[in-house]
């Protein structure tokens, strides 16, 4: 199974639809808030959200939605990455609520060979996340340094360091 892509495998204009989606639970949202010390009552306090917000319910913290989408994109985009170079932009377009299912897709906007090393290049992508009804909730653009095939071959191929199973017995 392929995990990520080499530079040569990216084509400008290609769209990768990430699968599967993820249904966001209250637990997911609250745990992420607690782990990141974001204790804003919009995310953590149902009573507060019901009585004081335009939505009347808790809103999933935006950085969790972004993190989900980034993670969803790894097998298609940055699974072989040498480095994540830049998050150029990040926009939260619409709210996500507990029970919403997030899906993502990434479009390759551009690719540029490295000027300093001939075994890698930079891929520029845009990822959008949307809910089960198609509502776009998050859009971000990033640049990822990915290896060329020569880089991978010099380091052991598709799954370097993977051991061979030893028979029991």
From TrEMBL:
<dbReference type="InterPro" id="IPR048274">
    <property type="entry name" value="MC_hydratase"/>
</dbReference>
<dbReference type="Pfam" id="PF19315">
    <property type="entry name" value="MC_hydratase"/>
</dbReference>
<protein>
    <submittedName>
        <fullName>Acyl dehydratase</fullName>
    </submittedName>
</protein>
<dbReference type="InterPro" id="IPR052342">
    <property type="entry name" value="MCH/BMMD"/>
</dbReference>
<feature type="region of interest" description="Disordered">
    <location>
        <begin position="150"/>
        <end position="169"/>
    </location>
</feature>
<dbReference type="InterPro" id="IPR029069">
    <property type="entry name" value="HotDog_dom_sf"/>
</dbReference>
<dbReference type="GO" id="GO:0016829">
    <property type="term" value="F:lyase activity"/>
</dbReference>
């Amino acid at each position: 199974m392929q995990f990520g892509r080499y530079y040569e495998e990216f084509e400008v204009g290609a769209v990768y639809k990430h699968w599967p989606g993820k249904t966001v639970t209250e637990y997911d949202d609250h745990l992420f808030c607690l782990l990141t010390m974001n204790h804003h009552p919009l995310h953590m306090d149902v009573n507060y959200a019901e009585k004081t917000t335009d939505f009347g319910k808790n809103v999933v913290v935006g950085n969790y939605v972004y993190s989900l989408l980034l993670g969803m994109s790894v097998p298609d985009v940055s699974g072989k990455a040498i480095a994540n170079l830049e998050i150029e932009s990040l926009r939260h377009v619409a709210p996500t609520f507990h029970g919403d299912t997030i899906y993502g897709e990434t479009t390759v906007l551009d690719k540029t060979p490295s000027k300093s090393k001939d075994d890698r290049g930079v891929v520029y992508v845009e990822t959008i996340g949307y809910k089960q009804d198609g509502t776009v909730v998050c859009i971000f653009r990033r640049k990822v340094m990915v290896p060329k095939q020569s880089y991978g071959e010099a380091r052991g191929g598709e799954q370097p360091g993977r051991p061979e199973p030893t028979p029991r017995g």
